[in-house]
Specification:
Elements lengths: L3 H11 L4 E5 L11 E8 L6 H16 L8 E8 L3 E5 L7 H9 L11 H11 L15 E7 L8 H8 L4 E7 L4 H7 L6 E4 L5 H16 L3 E5 L11 E8 L6 H15 L9 E8 L3 E5 L7 H9 L11 H11 L15 E9 L6 H9 L2 E10 L2 H7 L6 E3 L10 H10 L21 E8 L6 H16 L8 E8 L3 E5 L7 H9 L11 H11 L15 E6 L9 H9 L2 E8 L3 H7 L6 E4 L9 H10 L21 E8 L9 H13 L8 E8 L3 E5 L7 H9 L11 H12 L14 E7 L8 H9 L2 E8 L4 H7 L6 E4 L9 H10 L24 E8 L2 H4 L2 H13 L8 E8 L3 E5 L7 H9 L11 H11 L15 E7 L8 H9 L2 E8 L4 H7 L6 E4 L9 H10 L13 E12 L8 H11 L11 E7 L3 E5 L7 H9 L11 H11 L13 E9 L8 H9 L2 E8 L4 H7 L6 E4 L9 H8 L18 E8 L8 H13 L8 E8 L3 E5 ...
Parallel strand pairs: 2-3, 2-5, 5-6, 6-7, 9-10, 9-12, 12-13, 13-14, 15-16, 15-18, 18-19, 19-20, 21-22, 21-24, 24-25, 25-26, 27-28, 27-30, 30-31, 31-32, 33-34, 33-36, 36-37, 37-38, 39-40, 39-42, 42-43, 43-44
Antiparallel strand pairs: 1-8, 3-4, 10-11, 16-17, 22-23, 28-29, 34-35, 40-41
Helix pairs in contact: 2-3, 4-5, 8-9, 8-13, 10-11, 14-15, 16-17, 20-21, 22-23, 27-28, 29-30, 33-38, 35-36, 39-40, 39-44, 41-42
């Protein structure tokens, strides 16, 4: 037992950490036990097997007595020695049985070091966090039990501080040689430290630990965490280390620098709210190792520092490197907190003088208030270091990098204490601020890709400087800003900010929006309509001058005259800034020719700053300012129905309720409430939805505000947003509840949510969209961005804040669409494939309307007819444009006219005007679909399918089909016919989804009379959709046979969506010709490892494969190692033993489906896979690394990305059309039955050009030889040097052991010579080395390989010799050094893919593994008789 007295004594011991133990004796024992308990166990070799077994047994016995479960005690485990590793997390297992089984299977880690400090920090960073199962936020006690065998190898103090300051209970059990003093330091209280010198004392120790743990778990013993009394926290700072990574520095010195950085940074508290660290290294160019926001914990940072490796390079461009870190690291996106006032530091560590100018980039750093330290080695230039450092006191010089520890304390002190510098800008001499009257200034800036990142940064700086010259305030100068490319978007309004600091911060944080087109005219209209309004802060009615500053980077391609005139009429003075070679165009937009300013490049914007400021400061308005345009007279009194749907779950919590109430109230305050004006409803939800009041409940603003003030949260832990959306669609946006949708009143839904939805949100969101409801989404805290975007009418209507109290920041943004949107003009989101592209109105497509004309639809047939006429009226009809056909059906189909019946729009419209319904009770939709496939989408009926003209079907249906539609729907997709489906009345939802090409092409109406409501929605995709077949370059292979392997992400990240991946495979399989000598299919799942579900040669029957695929279940696993999985399928699935048939010339296709970024390297396995002739397709789901997808795929056209798992249904048609046209990658045929035998000849450039690099060439040769089994019956080696003439160093049969070959290479001396004659050298090896007497086994079909290393182009002809080598079947690998580029190497290499140019001698080592792999696997069939010796 722990007595109250003992607890009281502990207060003094814990005061330094700000921890106070409180002990309370409760009279009842009914308190629910709950705790998060993590065992941290020493797995080093210091423990013998008996002691480790004791530790395992001790933990198991202890857990036996605990109540394990997600609502009781959770258990996690970490084992450590030199480094820590997770055994399992707190939320990995939910039952005692699972935990005990994991402990039983525990194996000792091993290792000589015991880094307890690192392990403690690892627990804080990786285990006591919500994602790992920690319930600290729910005030569940956090407990660590450390079992250790000796004193730590590292300093434990920082780890102890980190874990204790969080209020974690720390128990220490010392075994074997454990250090008593260290155990007491780590433990929460000395009584929590227990040494076990005798393993037989296990029972008493376990009882003592259990007694204390019970007090903790029942909260009879608690820790109060107060502010630390002793340790002074180093304030926030951002530190970038820029380190010399050149070859002249050397690996040893590089490691010393890394150790120095590690020793500095380990003294800081690392995190987004503390100290952030970045590292870049440089030589001729700079490379970012990691950004300021990459590593948010001390352990992650130290691991990254230990993994740094010298990149090499022979020149040192320090100036360019300083410019790189300024642009790439001291930016908000890279984690810089400069705009928040956090001090910015760069620490340069270099070994020698720079080859380029450092003054200009150093001055830029100084002007930007970035404090530069300069640390130089012996060869560094002291004057240069002083030029770079912000102050001479921050220059440090060491004779050797061994002496870096000598300056450790000085550097650390300065980094810890410097608070920043103040940069004084010279103010413009033009008008004094006091003379500047009120002004409203809007900046409209070109954010398209044409501007470029560097130019955009220059524009940002220019605007920020202009703003600093004014007195900002609601009664002084106001500033707004919008960006544009193909569309315009507001960044902030005139009344968004009332202080200069807020404005400048937002401007400096601006991100370029991107976009390939530039619609300046539309953007000018946008700012007039939405920014120069009273609502957005314009004070035009008060006579305040209105200014627009347009900054554009290119030609003005659309009409700008009309919007320019409108701005002028509205009294807005327009200044325009652009390129000086387009000044005449700029003057077309500016209010006066003198207000158009040209610059050569945007970096010269400061040159016109004075002129722009002068105009903005002195002009007082246009001579003739007319009334505001009518567009600005939009009033809140316009009719609209607005429903608030708010998250009432525990995700929000009572503490956030006032912020939500206040946000809704402020919005309602701006509205003109009334039964004939604006109506408001409110619904709250968690697991279910319930209305607080309907649209028709209140007709006055006071009543609504009063109800909102009484709002309380309904509670609940589950959040079913999808069900809530469905609820408001079915029961709130209805006439009964007060909706005026049928009267054309705009319908708005404002969703506020704080968590992830547990149910499907896509379908109910789509249903709201189709019914004309405009959904605005506000997400906070744990809301998922991807889900929010799926729900909103448009991505621009998604607003996110970190926490609910920040809602006022977005209030104005939310109000804008409420004031301006008048209704849904919906453009269907087209499938995000590479097989979809926009087409103009004069391009071709074949469109067939298939119309339900059964008795049920008969009464509405007139509406159908008018709908068809309205759609066709908008099409460009003609035999060489859009062709139209119409088919009616009920029990049977009936053709009204075919695609080639009419050649002009008038005839088609006349024919449609005479349509009469067929009638009939039955509705055989499946039969009708099959009919149009076989009889209408045919060449004879006018279809241009063979000419790749898009084939589109528009189905109008009013009821459930009497026959099955499944087979017919599949046939449509296989035939590349894109089906649009319009469902009315009693149409079956499942059937319509099956038939529609994708859910985006599915439309629902109440009845056919409502068809006009969706006419525009249908027309947009109907006029732009095209399916395009992508073909790969073909080679000679059997195109009608394929080995297809599906490599599927089976990690927990996929979870319940696995069935959608399975469905994709099931939809593809029927389209393959599966048989023993035709197509073969395999499926492999992977996460941290790979598992074959069935190999290529397992099944030769399509039904069996489908059956096995339907049985697939998620494999599971927390980590995603795509690289290992790619290597696994190459070795085990595509191989001959795995059923692969590449050796027979059959195409091999890999379809990778992944949902996340790989945790391991994919580059090497990908290269090996492609080298083996496999064509990888890659499908990425959700938030994947696009660069990684492109790296794996055979070509960019074989990368497919979908936003979510439902998007997979849009892929099957495209994948199928591509895979049927894929041919294999050309590689040399493998014919050698014995892959172990090879004759390898090194042909080495020995000219003076190689010079000092020759030792690296020798090293390369020795490493290559060392990886082969050398011998007379295995791999033989020869070496020849050449310059003007060749010289044989040793023949293939000279040395019979690896040792002898390596010794001979070690003795090689550079031949020297000024010229290189490669042709002559090739003749020499053909005639003197690749012959039987010299050891060649060419006649025995042993592969003959020639590795040529050259530094440049040959002085003699090589074409004949290269042909001769190919005829002989000798595979020449061409490796280029220095001046030997691809154009020099490819004519000699056996194939272009065997040409390897490298920049420097270090590059030889980089290609070694790749070369080795190819040399070990490739062999070439001899196609002609060897040339006889003359």
């Amino acid at each position: 037992m722990v007595t109250p007295v003992k607890m009281h004594q502990s207060v003094l011991l814990l005061a330094v950490l700000g921890l106070v133990l409180s002990y309370s004796v409760t009279e009842t024992k009914e308190a629910q036990e709950s705790a998060d308990l993590v065992f941290l166990i020493d797995g080093s070799r210091n423990l013998g097997s008996d002691e480790f077994q004791f530790m395992r047994s001790f933990i198991a016995n202890f857990i036996e007595d605990l109540n394990i479960g997600p609502d009781a005690i959770q258990v996690g485990m970490v084992q450590y020695s030199k480094t820590p590793s997770t055994v399992f997390y707190l939320n990995t297992y939910t039952t005692k049985t699972e935990v005990l089984k994991a402990i039983k299977n525990l194996r000792q880690k091993g290792g000589n070091e015991v880094n307890t400090g690192m392990a403690l920090q690892f627990l804080v960073d990786n285990h006591f966090i919500p994602s790992a199962g920690s319930r600290a936020d729910e005030e569940v006690p956090q407990v660590m039990v450390l079992l250790t065998s000796r004193q730590s190898s590292d300093d434990v103090r920082r780890g102890v501080f980190s874990i204790k300051k969080r209020g974690t209970f720390t128990f220490v059990l010392g075994i074997a040689d454990a250090d008593a003093a260290e155990a007491k330091l780590i433990a929460t209280d000395p009584s929590f430290s227990m040494l076990i010198p005798d393993l037989h004392q296990k029972a008493s120790t376990q009882q003592q630990l259990m007694s204390l743990f019970s007090l903790v778990a029942t909260k009879q013993l608690i820790i109060k965490v107060e502010e630390p009394k002793v340790e002074v926290q180093i304030p926030k700072r951002d530190i970038v280390f820029l380190i010399d990574g050149s070859s002249s520095l050397g690996h040893a010195n590089f490691l010393k620098i890394c150790k120095f950085i590690s020793s500095i940074t380990e003294n800081f508290v690392i995190g987004p709210d503390s100290v952030q660290v970045a590292v870049a290294q440089y030589s001729d160019a700079a490379t970012t190792e990691f950004h300021l926001n990459t590593h948010t914990t001390q352990s992650a940072l130290q691991t990254a520092l230990k993994n740094l490796r010298l990149r090499g390079g022979w020149t040192l461009n320090t100036g360019a490197a300083l410019d790189h870190i300024y642009r790439s690291h001291f930016a908000t996106a890279a984690g810089s907190r400069k705009e928040d006032g956090v001090p910015q530091f760069v620490v340069l560590i270099t070994g020698t003088k720079s080859n380029d100018d450092v003054k200009q980039p150093a001055d830029i750093l100084k002007r930007s208030a970035i404090m530069a330290f300069a640390v130089g080695g012996r060869n560094a230039d002291l004057a240069e270091l002083n030029e770079i450092a912000i102050d001479p006191s921050l220059v440090f010089n060491v004779a050797e990098f061994d002496s870096l520890p000598d300056i450790h304390q000085q550097v650390l002190t300065q980094l810890s204490t410097l608070a920043g510098v103040t940069v004084v800008y010279e103010q413009p001499t033009a008008p004094v601020k006091k003379e500047m009257d009120k002004r409203d200034i809007v900046f409209l800036i070109d954010g398209s890709y044409h501007t470029g990142r560097r130019n955009f940064a220059d524009v940002r700086d220019f605007i920020a400087t202009i703003i600093t010259a004014f007195d900002i305030g609601s009664d002084q100068v106001q500033v707004g800003l919008a960006q544009y490319s193909d569309a315009a978007n507001s960044e902030f309004f005139l009344n968004t900010y009332s202080s200069k600091n807020e404005l400048v911060s937002h401007v400096r944080a601006l991100r370029q929006r991107g976009g390939r087109t530039r619609k300046t005219g539309e953007a000018l209209n946008y700012v007039l309509k939405y920014l120069f309004t009273k609502y957005s802060g314009s004070r035009h009615e008060e006579g305040v001058p209105q200014f627009l500053v347009l900054i554009t980077s290119g030609k003005l391609t659309d009409d700008v005259r009309q919007p320019s005139d409108a701005l002028l009429q509205a009294g807005v003075i327009t200044l325009v800034i652009g390129a000086d070679n387009m000044i005449k165009q700029l003057q077309e937009v500016s209010s006066d020719p003198s207000l158009a300013f040209g610059v050569k490049e945007f970096r010269f914007l400061p040159e016109i700053q004075h002129k722009v400021l002068l105009s903005l400061s002195t002009l007082t308005g246009m001579r003739k300012a007319s009334e505001l345009p009518t567009v600005q007279t939009i009033k809140e009194a316009d009719k609209k129905d607005i429903v608030f749907l708010i998250d009432g779950s525990f995700h929000v919590g009572d503490t956030n309720l006032p912020a939500i109430r206040d946000f809704i109230s402020r919005i309602i305050e701006t509205l003109d409430i009334g039964s004939d004006r604006v109506r408001v409803g409110l619904v709250q939800y968690s697991d279910i939805a319930e209305p607080l009041f309907l649209l028709s409940t209140y007709s006055s603003k006071d009543e609504i505000l009063s109800e909102i003030n009484r709002l309380t949260l309904r509670g609940g832990t589950v959040l079913n947003t999808g069900a809530a959306l469905d609820y408001v669609h079915r029961y709130i946006f209805t006439k009964y509840s007060g909706s005026r949708k049928q009267e054309g009143v705009p319908q708005f839904l404002i969703l506020l949510t704080g968590g992830r939805s547990r149910d499907d949100i896509k379908r109910p969101a789509d249903a709201l969209l189709r019914s004309g409801v405009m959904t605005i989404v506000v997400g906070a805290e744990n809301a998922i961005e991807q889900q929010l975007q799926q729900i909103a009418l448009d991505r621009s209507l998604v607003y996110t804040v970190d926490e609910f109290p920040s809602l006022p920041k977005i209030q104005q943004d939310v109000l804008l669409p409420l004031s301006t949107l008048a209704g849904v003009k919906m453009i269907s989101e087209l499938p995000t494939m590479k097989t979809i592209k926009d087409m103009t109105n004069d391009q071709e497509r074949d469109i067939v309307f298939l119309i339900d004309s059964s008795t049920r639809a008969g009464s509405s047939f007139r509406s159908v007819r008018e709908f068809l006429k309205g759609v066709i009226e908008q099409l460009n009809v003609g035999l060489n444009r859009n062709r139209v056909a119409v088919v009616q059906y009920s029990k049977d189909p009936k053709v009204e006219f075919l695609l080639n019946t009419y050649s002009n729009k008038a005839d088609v419209l006349d024919a449609v005007g005479t349509l009469e319904p067929m009638g009939g009770r039955m509705l055989n939709t499946g039969a009708a679909l099959n009919y149009v496939i076989r009889n209408v989408f045919t060449t004879a009926a006018g279809s241009r399918r063979d000419a790749n003209v898009p084939q589109l079907l528009v189905l109008l249906i009013s009821g459930k089909s009497s026959d099955s539609v499944k087979e017919a729907a599949g046939a449509l997709k296989r035939a590349a016919i894109v089906a649009f489906v319009i469902g009315a009345m009693d149409a079956d939802g499942k059937e319509t989804h099956e038939i529609a090409y994708s859910s985006n092409l599915l439309f629902a109406v109440h009845d056919f009379q409502s068809l006009p409501d969706i006419q525009n929605q249908l027309l947009q995709p109907l006029k732009t959709l095209i399916v395009e077949v992508i073909k790969m370059p073909s080679t000679v292979t059997e195109g009608n046979k394929r080995d297809v392997v599906f490599l599927v992400d089976g990690s927990y990240n996929v979870g319940t969506f696995f069935y959608l991946i399975r469905d994709l495979i099931i939809n593809l399989i029927p389209n393959f010709n599966i048989a023993k000598d035709k197509d073969q299919i395999s499926v492999v799942q992977y996460s941290d490892d790979a598992r074959i579900e069935f190999p290529l040669n397992a099944y030769t029957n399509k039904e069996l494969i489908l059956a096995k695929t339907r049985e697939l279940r998620l494999k599971g696993g927390r980590r995603l190692k795509t690289g290992s999985a790619l290597d696994f399928v190459r070795r085990n699935v595509f191989s001959r033993s795995g059923g692969g048939r590449h050796h027979l010339g059959i195409s091999q296709i890999l379809v990778l489906i992944t949902s996340g970024k790989s945790l391991d390297d994919v580059k090497q396995p990908t290269e090996e896979l492609k080298q083996a002739g496999v064509v990888p397709f890659v499908i990425g789901i959700g938030n994947v690394d696009r660069q990684e997808l492109h790296q794996i795929a055979y070509s960019p056209s074989l990368v497919f990305q979908v936003d979510d798992y439902w998007g997979l249904s849009d892929l099957d048609l495209h994948l199928l059309s591509i895979s049927k046209n894929v041919e294999s990658v050309p590689i040399p045929p493998i014919t050698s039955p014995d892959g172990d035998k090879r004759d390898i000849v090194f042909l080495l450039d020995g000219s003076a050009k190689i010079g000092k690099g020759f030792p690296n060439v020798r090293k390369f040769m020795m490493k290559m030889v060392d990886n082969f089994d050398a011998g007379a019956e295995k791999v033989q080696f020869a070496a020849v040097q050449f310059s003007e003439s060749p010289r044989t160093e040793f023949y293939l049969n000279t040395h019979t052991t690896k040792k002898q070959v390596l010794a001979a290479i070690k003795k090689l001396k550079l031949k020297r010579g000024k010229k290189i004659n490669i042709g002559r050298a090739l003749d020499h090896v053909i005639e003197n080395v690749f012959i039987s007497s010299a050891g060649s086994r060419m006649d025995n079909a042993v592969p003959q390989i020639l590795l040529l290393l050259t530094s440049g182009e040959s002085h003699d002809d090589i074409s004949q010799q290269a042909k001769k080598l190919r005829k002989l079947g000798i595979v020449l690998f061409a490796i280029g050094l220095r001046d030997a580029d691809q154009s020099v190497l490819e004519p000699m290499a056996y194939t272009d893919s065997l040409a390897f140019p490298v920049k420097n001698f270090q590059g030889l080592l980089n290609i070694q593994d790749r070369l080795q792999q190819i040399v070990k696997t490739v062999a070439v069939q001899i196609v002609e008789t060897p040339v006889k010796d003359n």
